[in-house]
Amino acid sequence: MRHPRAGSVFRVVLCLLLLASLYLLSMATQHSDLFGRLHPWLLMVNSAALVALVVLIAYNLWRLIAQRRRGQAGSRLTVRLVTMFVVLAVVPVTVVYYFSVQFLDRGIDSWFDERTEQQAVEEALRLSQASFDMRKRELLDRTQRSALDLADVPDGLLPLTLERLRNQDGAAEITAMRSSGRIIATSARAPDAVILPHRPEDDVLLQVRMGRPYVGLDPIDDEGLHIRVLVPAPGALGTPDQRILQVLYPVSPRVNDLAERVQAAYARYQEVGYLSRPLKNTFTITLSLVLLLSLLFAVWSAFYAARRLVEPVRSLAEGTAAVAAGDYGRQLPPAGNDELGFLVRSFNDMSRRVAQARDEATRSQAQVEDQRAYLETVLARLSSGVLALDRAGNIRTCNRAADQILGMNLGSHDGKPLVMVVKRNPHLEPFAALVARRMHGQEAEWREQISLFGPQGRQMLTCSGATLPAAHGGGGHVIVFDDVTTLIQAQRDAAWGEVARRLAHEIKNPLTPIQLAAERLRRKLEPDLQGRDAEVLERSTQTIIQQVDAMKAMVNAFNEYARPPRLDLAMGDINGIVQQVADLYRGGDDGPRIELDLDGALPGILVDAGRIRQLLHNLIKNALEATSAGERCRLRLSTVHRQDERFNGIEIQVRDRGPGFSDDVAEHLFEPYVTTKVKGTGLGMPIVKKIVEEHNGSITAENLADGACVTVRLPMPELVAVERSAEGGQ
Amino acid sequence: MNTRTPEASAFAGRLLLIAMMALAGFAPSLAAAERPGFVLAESDIRNDDSGVYLSARFQVRLSDEAEVALESGVPLGLDLQVRVIRPRWWWWDAELADLRMQRELRFHALSRRYVVLNNDTGERRTFFRRDAAIDAWASTVGERVIGGGQLESGEQYELELRARLNPDVLPHPLRTVALVSPEWRLASEWYTWPLDG
User: Fold this and answer.
1) Which fold has domain A570-729?
2) pLDDT in tens, A6-16
3) How far apart are CA B134 and CA B163, in angstroms?
4) For A198, which residue in chain B has the nearest alpha carbon?
5) CA distance A271 to chain B (A)
6) Order of strands, edge to edge, in the sheet holding A593-597?
7) Does B121 touch chain A (CB under 8 A)?
8) Radius of gyration for chain B, computed over Cα atoms and rounded to the nearest angstrom
9) Which helix (H) or strand (E) holds A398?
10) pLDDT of residue A653
């Protein structure tokens, strides 16, 4: 981009040159000799400048039109300014031009239309001519008389005669010639003229040859005006050829001088009169050129001035558009010290600050993002479920643990009301109801435990909530919950294990002495007693022994239940184990009828085969015991390899056609001493659960339409392997 | 005009033929003489040991503007431009001579005569009839164009001639007009004759 100051200097220099040229043109027009010679050249130079200006203006115009078509910022304002400037320049200049031309036209016309002067000059000329005409007539007469003197003068004597006649008539030169124009003799006052007399022109000779004398005024070289008279002269006797006598009479110096002046004045007046038109044209051309140049220069300058004026506005418009489009921090070139410059500076300031604010905001946003990512990471690593709701009860944030505990993907329901979300999972409705109630209660903090009944069985949740700060339109509620099912279960199991261990320890020790004592009592007293006493003794001791055995069995069961886990893991084939156990029960018509539905593509799994067998025994026994007397037990054992995102392992199902679990039993099915049966220790199902848990599996029991179903899930070896290595490490 | 010296007659005879041929070539130009301007009417080139001499007369048809100006006392200047060149195919032609014969024609109102002034010699001739004056104005007789020693024998030269109304001698106001008006741009074409060195 060219420096604006350089552009201004260029224009000023150009303007001065143009003015100088126009001044010279004006001088030249005023008949100055020096500039007069330059006038055509000046005209040409100025015309060239005119053409150059036209080209420049055309270029500027074309550029402006192109900018306007492109819709460039500021082009509309430039057009308006240029139009305004041009109108401002053209109108006064046109008015001045019109009146100048009129004035010039009429001024020159009126100057040359001075009738009196013109007439005076013409009259003077006529007078001079009339005066000369009289003189000419006289001289003609005199010459004709002199010509008569040539009669009978032979050619040889002519010089003398002519000399005499010249002196007599006061002529400057006298020449006798043949009618053909050949000079016979001459006599002249000036010595040069004797050698080279002033010959008449051919037309005059012709006229004289035809017998008509000629008399005329003749301006001869430097000698001034002369009156030239040619008359036919008689020839010498005997010569057929006629002679011609030419006499040049000088005009007296004073008359000559006056006549020359009159002639000069007339010629000058005629010339000037004739030149009035070209003079007018010249003036008009000069004036037009001056005005056109000034005008075009003004128009060209109008483009420049408009551009200079609009440049900051255009920059501002572009800058504003850029800022509007998000390009903050755009800086415009400085635009002087006027109000526009102030505007540009203010814009630059504003743009800079906006950019700073944006950077600040970006930094803050990045910090917030970092914070959020940090929080999310922390939340994701939390084993407790965290759920944040806004004031309307819509889900705002939740972590992975929340999804796992509640068994659904809460994250995909971001922004939806919790109440609506749980409609698909009816077992979560108590949870939603609890949250709604607590939120409605406007409590700052709360804590509560609830139990849910889902597909995984009973689930105990410890929930605690708090109201979020309501600043900046936030607010809402955060709920932290833990699945304490396992914990509570473990606590119960531990308590029962302790009871069983103590029972085994406290009860088992006296049982053997009791049994031994009863047997000794019977052995000692049996020989001494007869009859009914012996029978009573026998029955009593038998009863004691039997009951002690029963108690021993019970204590052993307790012992079994309280036994610390000691697994003997090996890669086992679940299908094989199921098959073996089922075969044990197949026998006899009154035995259970067992159907097997085994998955042929079951992978191997790390299990303690003995424990799994015990698990199956317990389950089958449980089913058998639940079967009403007199009915044949029908069992269906199935295995399947499940592999989805939540579980990867083997599922074993035992289904019977029994009465199913009653509601009060179902809740504490896997706790000891929960049984509906007459027989049994009440430890079958708790042991089953214990075995499953030792394998890191899960067990659920549910009632179906035609019986009960217990599902055991054993996870795949990876987890078990990890568990084993952890165990080995300990 | 025909002021031939006997020793140059051999050359002149040949050159006269050339001149006649040239005139025959100019015939269409003569027909076009109705247009204002200058057309060569007669010419004679004499080439002898002392130099090359040119005689020429142009037929003149003044434009209306020029005629009015003449009658109004405006002097009309005529330039007879003569050049002798040696054509060169490999470079611009070499110019051996460049002559400008200047004549002036004006009307003397008091005597009602036309005055023809030869600016080169200062000779002044007056004419009662305008056509005679114009004839004298637009002609030259026996003008020495180039010295005899300047032409190398065996070389081929060309002599060029043209007549042109000289706008420089016009009054100032007319000069500007003469620049732009075709009425004042009166000039003949360049007439060319071959010259033997």
Assistant:
1) Heat Shock Protein 90 (3.30.565)
2) 777 877 887 88
3) 13
4) B125
5) 5
6) A593-597, A634-643, A648-656, A707-715, A698-704
7) no
8) 18
9) strand A395-398
10) 92
Q: Does B115 contact chain A (CB < 8 Å)?
A: yes
Query: Which one of B108, B124, B172 has the shortest CB-CB distance to A221?
Result: B124
- Which chain A residues contact residue B66 at CB under 8 A? none
Report the CATH number of the A382-483 domain: 3.30.450.20
- Chains A, B: CB contacts within 8 A come to 100
Q: Is B74 on the interface with A (CB under 8 A)?
A: yes
Residue among A93, A554, A123, A109 at smallest CA distance from A289: A93
Report whether A395 contacts A439 (CB < 8 A).
no
Question: Which stretches within A466-587 are classed as H helix?
Answer: 485-525, 531-562, 574-585
Query: In this structure, are strands A593-597 and A634-643 parallel, antiparallel, or unpaired?
Result: parallel
Shortest CA distance to A492 belongs to which of A258, A326, A339, A690? A690
Q: Nearest by CB to B72, from A43, A270, A279: name it.
A: A270
Tokens matching residue B87 = 């054509």
Q: Homologous superfamily of A127-251 in CATH?
A: PAS domain (3.30.450.20)
Nearest neighbour of B72 by CB, restricted to A132, A218, A273: A273
pLDDT tens digit sequence for A71-94: 877 788 888 888 888 898 888 888
- Chain A partners within 8 Å of B123 (Cβ): 221
Closest CA to A231 of A289, A292, A169: A169
For A616-634, the pLDDT digits (tens) are: 988 888 888 877 777 778 8
Q: If you search the block for the tokens 């214990």, which residue do you land on? A: A690
pTM as predicted:
0.52
Model confidence at A705, pLDDT cuts 50, 70, 90, reads confident
